[in-house]
Amino acid sequence: MNAVPINPADPAGAVPPALTFGWKRTFAAILIVELALIGLYFDTAQAMVEIWWRSETFNHAILVPPIALWLIWEKRHAVARETPRPTLWLALPFVVITFGWLLGELAAVNAATQFALVGLMVLAVPLVIGITAARRIAFPLCFLFFAVPFGEFVMPKLMEWTAMFTVAGLRASGIPVYQEGLHFVIPSGRWSVVEACSGVRYLIASIVVGTLYAYLNYQSLKRRLIFVGFSILVPLVANWLRAYMIVMLGHYSGNTLAVGVDHLIYGWVFFGIVIMIMFAIGMRWREHEAPLPPLVEVPSGQSAEQSAVSLVGAVVLALGLAAVPQGALRAMNAGPQLPAPVLVAEPLAVDGWQLIDAPLASWTPAFANPSATLDATLAKGDARVGVFIAFYRQQNYERKLISSQNELVKSNDREWAQVGRGEHQASLGGQGVALRSGTLRSNAANLGGDPLRLKVWHGYWINGRIVTSDALGKVLLALSRLSGRGDASAAVFIYAQEPEADVVLADYLAQAGGRITAVLVEAEAPSRQR
User: Fold this and answer.
1) Which among 289, 298, 311, 404 has most CB atoms closer than 10 A?
2) Which among 473, 471, 514, 189 is positioned nearest to 347, based on CA atoms?
3) Alpha carbon distance 147, 143 (integer Å)
4) Cis, peptide link before residue 499, omega less than 30° from 0
5) Is residue 277 classed as helix, strand or coil in its secondary structure?
6) d(Cα 357, Cα 380) in Å, to the nearest integer?
7) What is the β-pairing status of strands 453-462 and 465-467?
8) CA distances from 513 to 2, 116, 185 (A)
9) What percent of the chain has pLDDT over 90?
């Protein structure tokens, strides 16, 4: 029998139960497993910590682990009332998570590998101590997932919403506005919605703090979910109001207020005030935690020797399963370093299209560290078309095809701005494909010239397929590596000048689509021979 005895001096359970030998042993086992997981997946953990330090969006994540440990410490008396009993069938989801980590590592997806690591660390707790005991600290364990730097994927949509609200507010205030995408002009000057204006920092921080506040101050699930919902809605609306007021302050002050550094200071002060008001309102519905029920002695059904054997088995099982994907990854990375491919432009000249030396524009896609590139301009009569290919092979976290950092144009680009985006159905070598579409505008107008406008069609080429979804592309890359085909892939861009760009691009792509594919297949060949 291994049960926590009733304290006769405190039948209500107010006096904390003593930490039994079984729990001391279990705590040591948990500590061993968690430290071993960090050691096995050290690169993943290190990458997560580096993002905490360098990214202002995720600085708050540094506090997540100590807060989770403090919350667990606060629940120690409740946990001690349970009998530690390993739940070995949790090895099945443990295997699924380790496989997810392997897929994320093969596709170089930071969020996937980091969520997997946190998931393993969280799941190791009920695996070792049992589901019943782990349920007592379910929230602190789940709170650890906020340590993963995740959420910046919503930034483009948040920027779009901020621009829409700001422009609508300006027009409602009687100020004339000319808008192109995230850029707009009012009588007092030009404004752009950039990453810092998206409000993603406020949103992520508000969700983390709001979730913690709801847990500490409410007991019913309904109230907690409602408050978390407000933690999402309030920073969104607050950021829209902040952006609108910044533009209004700049407009009426002759661009002397709410610009530069005070632009950011004003944003954080405004956000802080809004959050404090939200918390103050939330206190009106605060619920106090109910006392623990009396302790009841329940036979464990296991002898001390059986419990020790189960505990050792759980530790060995968890660490053994965690080590499998590490060995698999080393085996897949054991091949030789392949040379950089050579992309040949001559095959792109087809059916009257001729290669010319004069570039169509000074623009090139902001795709980092490709293994090889091809940048060509072709002409057919008065029509001009540009082709740019960024080819990637043996990808890693510094060199990868699909990344949030890879864009048509950076928001801080002084020469070009993206003013439109969408999708386009095109014919590629006789086959219908969906491509992304982007409209670019040069900033030559700022220098007194006429702005050049480009229409760009683009997509990812992976395993002979053209895809536009980042998620699908990552999955295809991971599966390609698992199957031994390698990760050779490319981003393909074709572009032409407006206003006839769609006609020119459709004509060229219908004739030369097969040639573009042939160039990519030829460059991919060494990867398939590996």
Assistant:
1) 311
2) 514
3) 8
4) yes
5) helix
6) 14
7) antiparallel
8) 72, 39, 39
9) 33
> How does pLDDT run across 457-484, given as a tens digit for each residue?
999 999 888 899 998 999 999 888 888 8
CA distance 110 to 178: 39
Count other C-beta atoms under 10 Å from residue 362's C-beta: 9
- The yes-or-no verdict on residue 530 having pLDDT over 80 is no
Residues 6+ apart with CB under 8 A from 323: 40
| DSSP β-bridge partners for residue 490 | 391, 461
Counting Cα atoms < 13 Å in the Cβ hemisphere of 450 gives 4
Which residues 6+ apart lie within 8 Å of 318 measured at CB? 33, 37, 91, 94, 124, 127, 128
* C-beta of residue 509 within 8 angstroms of C-beta of residue 437: no
Q: How many CB atoms lie within 10 A of CB 294?
A: 12
Distances (CA, A) of 113 to 103, 104, 346, 471: 8, 5, 41, 14
The CA distances from residue 384 to 105, 301, 453, 506, in Å, are 41, 80, 13, 12
Both tokens of 309, joined, read 């054997």
Give the residue from 159, 143, 164 showing the smallest Cα distance to 200.
159
The confidence score (pLDDT) of residue 119 equals 95
As a whole number of angstroms, the distance between CA 105 and CA 59 comes to 24
Place of tokens 């430290």: 35
Residue type, 493: F
Cross-strand partners of 466: 461
Q: How far apart are CA 495 and CA 440, in angstroms?
A: 10
pLDDT, tens digit, for every residue of 17-76? 555 657 888 888 999 999 999 999 999 999 999 999 988 889 889 999 999 999 999 998
pLDDT at 2: 42
> Poorest-confidence range of 254-258, 286-290, 403-407?
254-258
At position 5, the amino acid (one-letter code) is P
Burial bucket for residue 258 (CB in 10 Å: 0-12, 13-18, 19+):
buried
Q: Distance between terminal CA atoms of the chain?
A: 59
C-alpha 244/C-alpha 249 separation (Å) is 9
H or E stretch at 418? strand 416-428
How far apart are the C-alpha atoms of 420 and 437, rounded to whole Å? Answer: 8
The whole-model pTM stands at 0.82
How many Cβ atoms sit within 10 Å of the Cβ of residue 211? 18
Res 265: pLDDT: 57
Confidence of residue 373 (pLDDT cuts 50, 70, 90): very high
Q: What percent of the chain has pLDDT over 70?
A: 86
Structure tokens at 440: 């670019």
